[in-house]
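Complex record, two chains
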Amino acid sequence: SQQGEEDPQALSIQEGENATMNCSYKTSINNLQWYRQNSGRGLVHLILIRSNEREKHSGRLRVTLDTSKKSSSLLITASRAADTASYFCATVQPYGGATNKLIFGTGTLLAVQP
Amino acid sequence: ETGVTQSPTHLIKTRGQQVTLRCSSQSGHNTVSWYQQALGQGPQFIFQYYREEENGRGNFPPRFSGLQFPNYSSELNVNALELDDSALYLCASSLGGVLSRNEQFFGPGTRLTVL
């Protein structure tokens, strides 16, 4: 089963605009990660934010995490046509042992129009 | 490129058949996870192998099984294929350990179609 939902399901913007995607999850987490997927192929890791962090930046990406609301957001600034892809949040739970499984959300399909 | 490879790229099977999918990990990684992604959905965790032992399993029946080899490459086997097994199968490698909670590096996936 999915961990949670992402909002919106689909987003269409113009090149140069900012894109914001939200993710909600259900259980406590060790960290939350964002991945990008182009055309139903492999996922590319974008950024990881730990449960004790509130905000993280990587290039044009900004991620926030609110563990009290069990939610995260991904902001892509100055979007480009090449950013067109599906974006997934994925959580890792804080259980003991070596299991490092990702529990994915439902994804946001981002289309950036040139 | 993540350095994780999967074969084959595409596969068509009929219901009831068996299939083996293969994955080569990124160099230095000792953990492989397998995910199933149905069309329009997020990936779902099948199982994980750490140093050749199964280390966690998702909500998949026993006809889904796997192996990890000493070089940390891995296989996913699915017996008695059903139509609902049609999906993109992704493997991901990572550097695991008792307290590891690291990012994972995904291969390009194998698209399985069951007719």
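Note: Chain B touches chain A through 36 residues (CB under 8 Å).
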